[in-house]
Design brief:
Blueprint (H helix, E strand, L loop, with lengths): L74 H9 L13 H16 L18 H14 L14 E4 L12 E3 L4 E6 L2 E6 L5 E6 L7 E6 L5 E6 L4 E5 L4 E6 L7 E7 L2 E6 L3 E6 L6 E6 L5 E6 L5 E6 L4 E5 L16 E3 L6 E6 L6 E6 L5 E6 L4 E7 L4 E6 L5 E6 L6 E5 L4 E6 L6 E6 L6 E5 L3 E5 L28
Antiparallel strand pairs: 1-28, 2-3, 3-4, 4-5, 6-7, 7-8, 8-9, 10-11, 11-12, 12-13, 14-15, 15-16, 16-17, 18-19, 19-20, 20-21, 22-23, 23-24, 24-25, 26-27, 27-28
């Protein structure tokens, strides 16, 4: 078969890859126009003609394909092909002078070690008002910020006071710390006042045996007046500055008043009869509103910071949220007034604490058969979380300056536990009491916590950190400054 018989004729130049004929026979020159290429394909390097003027007319030249006749071999062209630079077998691209020059430049930079590879000699100009600039500024501020040190939490009480005759009754509330930095505690039939600034102790009142013992104490918002609930169902209001009885609220409850809570000039009292009564201390007919929902003793009572909602817990294992707009002075038979009724606890609900940084967040604690701390959205009534503490929950206090919660417990460890909210990871456990820690109260600056237990001791713990510098400082002296040990007797 003829060597070129299976090829297309040169006249069919439209075929892909075909090249125009050479201008001068036997010369090596650049074609007048580039060859046709497929879109996206790599450019082919220039290749000179592979044949000169054929000596044999049967020999045909077709650009990059050459099938010579042995008798018409062009030795000059064969020599050129043998001496042509070797191509890259993978990429089929001939080395360019630019590439060689770049290699020499890199080698020179590495040898002299003058600059970094792929680095600008001069810093490029920063774009104005760009997201990149803001991100760099944020990163720089984070890197410049010093690492937050882990807060030291003392594991022992800073001070311990004797509290003889403290009633070992889970359902009472016998400890409160007023805004004037004076602590009140009921021991049997007597109410004592302890001034945290001076460390002095004074006796406010001793109740008659027929009316006593004292079952609850609560400071008014002004820090001067204090309410005292009695076993006889009466409530007394005293002026602490003059040790003078201002008035007695009677005829409302049928048995002891174990819980009290102030909302401006409204004193709310909860009794063993299950009734919750709002008393306006400014008027003669003080009982202005009544909440009915508990069937047993009301042992927990707390107004929210806004004064719009009231939380009540009872020995019937119920937790109620009351709204001031839903209360009525004359309740019809069978009518319910609560905003929400929670039945999730399986024991008495005494420990209640409204969150200082989220107005609709309430923490509640259950008794020995429940042992849980639950968190509630009081707008919807939904339970947000429940944590089994493993022991009776007696009292709860929020940190005023950080997202932390302190709980006091009864059986079996009788400890105070500091929790990180909302993860509820234990930060510390404070031990020292030998019996259940029934009551807790917080100093006005929020740093110190007083705990009273059935072991008849009153202990002070520096569990919460100081308020930030931007916060308003209290006028009174810091409650941490103790000069001597006194006994409450």
């Amino acid at each position: 078969m003829d060597a070129g018989s299976d090829m297309m004729s040169p006249e069919k130049s439209g075929r892909r890859g075909a090249r125009p004929p050479l201008r001068e026979a036997g010369s090596i020159s650049t074609p007048s126009m580039p060859p046709l290429q497929e879109p996206g394909s790599r450019p082919r390097p220039y290749m000179p003609s592979l044949c000169s003027t054929p000596r044999n007319p049967a020999v045909k030249c077709y650009g990059d394909r050459f099938i010579p006749d042995r008798s018409a071999m062009d030795m000059d062209m064969a020599h050129y092909l043998l001496t042509e630079p070797r191509k890259d077998r993978k990429n089929a691209v001939t080395p360019s002078p630019g590439k060689e020059a770049y290699r020499k430049l890199l080698a020179e930079k590495l040898l002299n070690n003058r600059t970094r590879i792929l680095a600008f000699r001069n810093r490029p100009p920063e774009p104005e008002n760009s997201i990149l600039t803001e991100l760099r500024a944020d990163v720089a501020s984070v890197q410049a910020r010093p690492a937050k040190k882990r807060r030291y939490i003392p594991q022992s009480a800073e001070r311990t006071l004797d509290a003889p005759d403290l009633l070992d009754d889970y359902y009472l509330n016998l400890l409160d710390w007023g805004s004037a930095n004076v602590l009140s505690i009921a021991l049997g039939n007597t109410v004592y006042l302890w001034d945290a600034a001076s460390g002095s102790t004074s006796e406010l009142v001793t109740i008659d045996e027929d009316d006593g013992p004292v079952t609850s104490v609560s400071w008014a918002p002004d820090g001067q007046h204090i309410a005292i609930g009695l076993n006889s169902s009466a409530v007394q209001i005293w002026d602490s500055s003059s040790n003078r009885l201002l008035r007695t609220l009677q005829g409302v409850h049928e048995s002891r008043v174990g819980s009290l809570s102030w909302n401006k000039s409204i004193l709310t009292a909860g009794g063993m009869d299950g009734k919750i009564v709002n008393n306006d201390v400014r008027i003669r007919e003080h009982a202005v509103q009544t909440y009915r929902g508990h069937t047993q003793e009301v042992c927990g009572l707390k107004w929210s910071g806004s004064g719009r909602q009231l939380a009540s817990g009872g020995n019937d294992n119920l937790l109620h949220i009351w709204d001031v707009s839903m209360a009525s002075s004359a309740q019809s038979a069978g009518r319910t007034q609560w905003l929400h009724r929670m039945e999730d606890h399986s024991a008495a609900v005494k420990a209640l604490a409204w969150c200082p940084f989220q107005s609709n967040l309430l923490a509640s604690g259950g008794g020995a058969n429940d042992r849980c701390i639950k968190f509630w959205n009081t707008h919807t009534g939904a339970c947000l979380n429940s944590v089994d503490t493993g022991s009776q929950v007696c009292a709860l206090l929020w940190n005023k300056n950080d997202r932390e919660l302190l709980s006091s417990h009864g059986f079996t460890q009788n400890q105070l536990t500091l929790w990180k909210y909302p993860s509820m990871v234990k930060m510390a456990e404070l031990n020292g009491h030998t019996s259940r820690v029934l009551f807790m109260a917080q100093s006005p600056d929020g740093c110190t916590v007083a705990s009273a237990a059935a072991d008849e001791t009153l202990r002070f713990w520096n569990v919460f950190p100081d308020a930030p510098k931007s916060a308003v400082k209290e006028k009174t002296s810091q409650s941490r400054l103790f000069n001597s040990y006194n006994h409450l007797r």
